Amino acid sequence: MKLHEYQAKGVFADAGIPTPDSQLASSVDEVLAAAEDVGYPLAIKAQVQVGGRGKAGGIELVENDEEAREAAESILGMDLKGYTVDRVLVEAAVDFVNELYVGVTMDRGKGKPVAMVSTRGGVNIEEVAAEDPDAIVREHVDPAFGMHPYQARKAAFEAGVDREIATDVASIVKTLYDLWDETDASETEINPLMVTADGDVIAADAVMNIDEDALFRQPDLAEMEEEAADLDELERKANDYDFDYVRLDGDVGVIGNGAGLVMTTLDLVDYYGGSPANFLDIGGGAQAERVRNALDMVFSDPNVDAVVFNIFGGITRGDEVARGINEALREFDEIEVPVVVRLAGTNAEEGMEILDTDLIEVEATLEEAVQRTVDIANGVTDQ
Amino acid sequence: MSVLVDDDTRVIVQGMTGGEGRFHSELMLDYGTDVVAGAVPGRGGETVHGVPVYDTVKEAAREEDADASVVFVPPAFAGDAIFEALDAPLDLVVAITEGIPTQDMSRVAKRLSEVDTRLIGPNSPGIITPGGAKLGILPGDVFSAGEVGFVSRSGTLTYQIVDNLTRRGIGQTTAMGIGGDPIIGTSFIDALELFEKDPDTEAVVMCGEIGGEDEERAARYIGEHMDTPVAGFIAGRTAPPGKRMGHAGAIVSSGGTGTAQSKIDALNDAGVPVGDTPEEVADHVEDLL
Questions:
Q1: Residues of B in contact with A246 (CB under 8 A)
Q2: A52 burial class (0-12, 13-18, 19+ CB within 10 angstroms)?
Q3: How many domains does chain A have?
Q4: Which ipTM score applies to this complex?
Q5: What is the pLDDT of residue B253?
Q6: Are A245 and A355 contained in the same domain?
Q7: Model pTM?
């Protein structure tokens, strides 16, 4: 779960990390009122979960009411990479001389947290990592001990942070690690961490990602979940149905069981010349209710022209799966787009015989099912 | 021959009295697995499918001379259950649980580096030596005994490709799902090493997916250290960056690392043929044998 900038900044500020004065606003009037409190010059920043907001026109620096009004009018309601901006952060501009990068994440290869410090902040850090890996100092942390303060100092000094501010930077790194640890974060990051002419350091941006599997023990953060999520209607529905769902931009709906097999089905749609509309994993069992909900998901997507339903029955036998599918299909007044089903695994033959071919098509192999569905979606064959 | 499990493996089921634990204990017993004990705190003295339940893993291991466990404990308590199994100590722990907080697994990974126990998973479907034993939730009748070692990050995709092989009469020495989480106990390299050492494994199928760089590391290992031929498959070619594709570990970073293409290229560079479809993987295996 990725927090919005304003949410993450709130958490960082509560932990004692300096952040610029700011207020959240959702209308032009609110922006102007906030500007009066915060004072010019200030930045108006779109609160959406997309990278590269600045380049896409989602951040504007303004000097007076007139510019603030103009910027607010242009940013509020704008579409940023598919997300509509409905809130902005009105934030005091920082007069900086330097921009640093500090962050904590999980190094999954090593199975350990790692803190990172770089004097090349203010740009995309993954690009820095690719071009000049030595520009980022990495300090791995033993998760059983947590971060020793010396590790944060070592990282700051080795990164070449000026001696005058290095201990302040180290203290922020240590705080970021402690927050990471306490909140079950997968990532805490400040980019840029701005350095002013007076030698103050201040978090001009804030990134915080929380492990969704740990939200059950992070009640305060779980409360932020709804506000944090930029979900469209379908994604919201998938949440309600408790599906692993990812919306894509193609026209072939995909339903299957098991993450690896569903990914493979998407890849095959692409391989055979189609374009997948979604990833949807219904999990084990394929009970009628899950199947009905999954079909409701893909039928609700206006882009979908045909659906491939690929189930590998293992523990749940093919005949039980087929009965579940039939039961689910009969709950719909009409099957809105063609559905091609493929069953495999234990008792698959029995299952395929049971399937109601008045309502759906059946193919014997995964490859054939995907090709058939792609053909229908591409209008190659008659239904 | 086989790797890690066979009909001598004596198995404890952690979480045996829960719905999943009870159900799969029965299926494991039916398959012929030597399930000798359950371990559930506060439920010592009960029996499940005729198997005695103990309060602690240590007691279960001591009383029933067990050397392995399967973890069906819910995510909030599964990290602790794995620590308990490591402390018993057991030789092998197979964690089926999906959804264990990543930071819990980071602490488990640290402990694993200090002990001799092998952990498979978490978020694993388990491990099976066809005709010998299965530890986990794999459907036994999809598999058949043979000469191919199988290692995968996914459950149903494993069954799919194994099914493609079975229809050509190709069976497995051992098949294992190493799990779809970001931090797991047994990596591809660990599994490949075991298959390389097994004299009966004539070829290996390695089935990876997007996220992390374990496949890339495994490709280098294959190129430098393996004589046994390997065929590959990588799921997630069409996955967009920054989206978790079902498995917690199946995510292409927003900076573009962990892509399917990077893994396919690494495997190809190591001389490993990678199938575009599950059926093509079976073609490659047939060529290798």
A1: 239-240, 243-245
A2: exposed
A3: 3
A4: 0.95
A5: 84
A6: yes
A7: 0.94
